[in-house]
Amino acid sequence: MWKQVLLAASVAAAAEPIHVESAAVHTNSVPGQSFVSYSIELSSFPDFAGTPLVSTCVPSCPPTHKVLLGNISNPNTFTDNLLTNLGHILGSKPYIRVGGNTQDYALSTAPTTRNAPTTTQPPSTSARPFSSPTRPFPASSAVTAEGWQALVDTAPLACKALGRDRFYGYEYGNEPNNFNLGGKYAPRSTSWGPKDYVREWLNGTAEIRGQMRKHCPDLEPEYLEFMAPSYDDRVGSLKAVDNSDINTYSVHNYIDGATSPGVTLQHTLMNHTRTTRDVDEQLQQYKKIMATGKGRAPLIFGETNSLYFQGKRGLSNSFGAALWGLDFNLYSASAGYQRVHMHQGTNYRYQSWQPIDTEKTAKGTKAPYYGNIAAASALGNLVRNNVTIASLPLESDTEVAYAVYEGGSGLFGGAAEYRTLILMLDP
C-alpha cells in the first residue's frame, strides 16, 4: 500500500503527483532510534534544562569567565513537553548533546560551599535521556599541570550526576580543527596541529576512562566511549579508532554562513543539491576511515543546522527553513546516518524553540521545530517498527521525494508497507 504526503513551499503551487516505480528503489538505510535529536550550546543548556541558579558575567568578560549553574529542582517543563512530543512519534526521546564553541572555553571550579559557582552540574530531570553531556575541553588542558588536574577532577562528574540511565558518553573537544585559527579566544596556538590533537585526544580520553572506571564502576564498557572527531570539516584518519573507544563517529555541518555573500532561502536552504553535497562529502570521509578496518562506529551529525553564526533572521527562522530541516534529516537518514543533532541555543535564529523569555526573543516554539516533527512523523516509531528510507532522484534542485518502508524482513520482503513522502519545493 502506498501513502502519499505532499508538502509545498507555496500553497498556490500546482501539486502534480510524481510517480515512482517501487522496483527502482534500493536501500538498506535504517535510521537509528531517536533519529531526530538535538545539540544545545553549553552556555545555553541551563535555560533549556532548567532555570539557572547562577548566570553571571562581569561586564565585557570573555566566555571563560561566565558562570552557569543548572537547577535540577526546577526543570524546564516547556523543553520537556517538546521533547516528549518527539518521543511519542519516534518511540524514544531525543538524545541531547551539550557542546558548541562555549564548550571549548568552559572552566570548572570544584564547589567548596553550598553557593560556590560551578560549570559542572548540567543534569536535569526534565527530559530523559538528556543523555550526552560533553566533556569540556579546557583551554589549558594537556598544556599546564592545572589544566590536566581539572580534567582529572571533572571527568567522573557526569557519570556520577546522571547515572547509567541518563548518561550516554563524552565528547572531548568541539571542532578541534578550528583550535589553531588564532584570535583572542583561540584554544591553541597557530603552531598546534593534527599530531598534537591526536596525542592530546588519546591521552585525555584514556585518563577520562580511567577516572570513570574508578568513580563509576557500575557502568558497562560502552559507557566509557566517546563521540568523535566532532570536526566541522572533512578529515582524514586521526587514529581515533585505535583504542576502540568510539561509540559514534560524529561530524558537524552547516549548509552555509549567516554572513556569507549570496545566501538566500530559495537557492541555499531550499536547494536539495546543496544538502546532498554536504551530506555525501561527510559520508565519503566516514567510509574511507571505516575502511581501515580498525573499528566500527555509527555515523551521526553531532551538531548541524542551516547557517552557522546562529542562523540568519528571515531565513533560518522561516518555514522554508523548516522544509530544509525536513529534507536534511530525511536525506541523512537515507544516506546511512544513524542520528541527527540539530544545534540550538538561547536567542539563536535557527533554534527549534526558545526555552525562556529574553529581551530579544519570546519563549515559544519556532518554525524549525515543525520540520523536526515532520521528519519524525515520516520515519515513525523506530523502536517498534523496522523502517528503511530511500531518496528518490528527481531532476530539479527544488523537487525532493523519499520513500519510507515499514515492516517485513527486508525492503521488499514479507508484508512490508511502502509509504511515499514527497516534498515539492516551489521554484
Residues in helices, as a percent range: 25-40%
Strand order of the biggest β-sheet: 5-2-10-9-8-7-6
The end-to-end distance, rounded to whole angstroms, is: 30 Å
Indicate the CATH architecture: Alpha-Beta Barrel
Radius of gyration: 21 Å
Return the CATH topology: TIM Barrel
Category by helix and strand content: alpha/beta
Structural account:
By secondary structure, the chain is α/β, with parallel strands linked by helices. The protein has one domain: Alpha-Beta Barrel (TIM Barrel). Helix content is 28%, strand content 19%. The chain has 10 helices and 15 strands. The protein has helices at residues 45-49, 77-90, 101-105, 145-154, 157-166, 194-215, 265-269, 272-290, 319-335, 367-379; strands at 4-8, 36-41, 54-56, 67-69, 96-99, 170-171, 226-231, 246-257, 299-308, 339-344, 353-354, 364-365, 387-392, 399-406, 417-424. The strands form 4 sheets. It has a 7-stranded parallel beta sheet. It has a 4-stranded mixed beta sheet with strand order 1-15-14-13, with helices on one face. A two-stranded antiparallel ribbon has the order 3-4. Strand 13 (387-392) and strand 14 form a beta hairpin. Helix 2 packs parallel to helix 10 and helix 9 runs parallel beside helix 10 (367-379). The longest helix is centred in the middle third of the chain and has 22 residues, at 194-215. It is globular. The two termini are 30 Å apart. Residues 1-14, 53-70, 111-143 and 409-415 have low confidence and may be disordered. InterPro entries: GH, GH79_Enzymes. Keywords: Signal. Residues 1-15 form the signal peptide.
